[in-house]
Specification:
single chain; 78% helix
């Protein structure tokens, strides 16, 4: 890891960047005399997140170095068969672990499984949704898991934390970053966003630390999952679906 960059910089960095980019856009709306600057900015969170992901990726390159980062994202022929086997096995559990806590928490907090999603997905021009698919999706997929489990977690281990503790710390910060995607000052919403992906983050964190060669496969899977967000926003924006 490059001098001057450590786990305790990387771990909160994405949460801070997501919030900061939304705050900057809200300031711009305020200068333009928008009626509700923060709410207006939160509507465009895919773009503020894309800007934050770009900065996060720069920090990640500095932390790992360009060659190490490229190596971590490269598919390896010598482990291909085993990687595919473990990927397919993990996919059986990935769906329920990623989806069920979302639904269960929303039901507990609001009595409505779609309440949090209605707060997240606000109408936006369809053209903007198309652009978001190309700027948000790849940057988020490339930077998220790599930051937490290939940069921060090993740094925690080098600092003396046991592997289990290091993975759990990184997974916690991965979960917390979602509070700013978008950042809304509602206690129930913040609790939902902070906890909804935590079981999935823990499972993926341990899997990637045990078998690091799975990272490029999970980046592709992440990209597919992230691509749904602009699509959902477009469907909400056109009234084709309601939540």
């Amino acid at each position: 890891m490059a001098p001057g960059v450590n786990a305790w910089v990387l771990l909160p960095s994405r949460l801070v960047l997501f919030a900061a980019m939304q705050a900057l856009l809200a300031a711009a709306f305020a200068l333009a005399r928008a009626e509700s600057p923060w709410a207006s900015a939160s509507r465009w969170w895919l773009f503020t997140a894309a800007a934050a992901n770009g900065l996060s990726f720069v920090l990640l390159v500095r932390a790992l170095g360009g060659e190490a980062l490229r190596a971590s994202l490269r598919f390896r022929r010598d482990t291909l068969r085993g990687d595919v086997k473990w990927l397919l096995a993990s996919l059986v559990l990935a769906g329920p672990i990623a989806w069920l806590p979302n639904q269960a928490l929303a039901l507990v907090l609001w009595g409505d499984v779609n309440a949090g999603s209605r707060m997240m997905f606000q109408p936006m021009p369809v053209a903007a949704c198309v652009v978001a698919a190309f700027v948000f999706t790849p940057l988020h997929a490339l930077s998220e898991l790599t930051t937490y489990f290939f940069a921060a977690t090993p740094a925690l281990e080098r600092a003396g934390h046991a592997r289990t503790r290091a993975v759990l710390i990184s997974a916690l910060f991965l979960g917390l970053q979602h509070c700013a995607l978008p950042l809304l000052f509602d206690a129930q919403y913040l609790a939902w966003r902070a906890a909804m992906f935590l079981p999935f983050a823990v499972a993926v964190g341990f899997l990637l630390r045990w078998r690091p060669t799975l990272l490029p496969y999970f980046v592709v899977l992440h990209l597919v999952m992230d691509a749904q967000l602009p699509v959902l926003t477009a469907l909400v924006s056109t009234g084709l679906i309601t939540m």
